[in-house]
Amino acid sequence: MRALREIRVGAEPSWNHDAVKLRIWFIKDRDSEVANHDWSELVDMWSGLFDESGRFSVEAAVACGLEDMMAHEYVESDVFDLDRLSVERVRS
């Protein structure tokens, strides 16, 4: 997790629809020692943690660098707030 710069999530067609397909980008920190690690197993494991029983389903999940994303993908996606997630998990 320390090798991640951020996680971004996009919703199709939008967050307000009844059925939402998620696209997840695990953006690697270029300066990390493990930036060149084989990420496919980690991406599968992390994307498998999303609850797909409701209106959300994971359409695609990839590990990439910022230079691998298109500008519109970055701008149209939302940052996945890990700090808030960890605080909420501790309270439960």
Topology overview:
Elements lengths: L3 E9 L7 E9 L11 H8 L8 E9 L6 H6 L1 E2 L2 H10 L1
Parallel strand pairs: 2-3
Antiparallel strand pairs: 1-2, 1-4
What's this model, at a glance?
Helix content is 26%, strand content 32%.
Distance between the termini: 22 Å
Strand order of the largest sheet: 3-2-1-4
Class of secondary structure makeup: alpha+beta
Shape: globular
Order of helices and strands: EEHEHEH
Q: Quick one: biggest sheet?
A: 4 strands, mixed
Helical content stands at: 25-40%
Beta-strand residue fraction: 25-35%
Radius of gyration: 14 Å
How many distinct beta strands? Answer: 4
Low-confidence stretches: 86-92
If you had to describe this structure to a student in words, what would you say it looks like?
By secondary structure, this protein is α+β, with helices and mostly antiparallel strands. It has one domain. 26% of the residues lie in helices and 32% in strands. It has three helices and four strands; from the N terminus they run E-E-H-E-H-E-H. Helix 1 links the parallel strand 2 and strand 3. The radius of gyration is 14 Å and the shape is globular. It starts with a strand and ends with a helix. The relative contact order is 0.25.
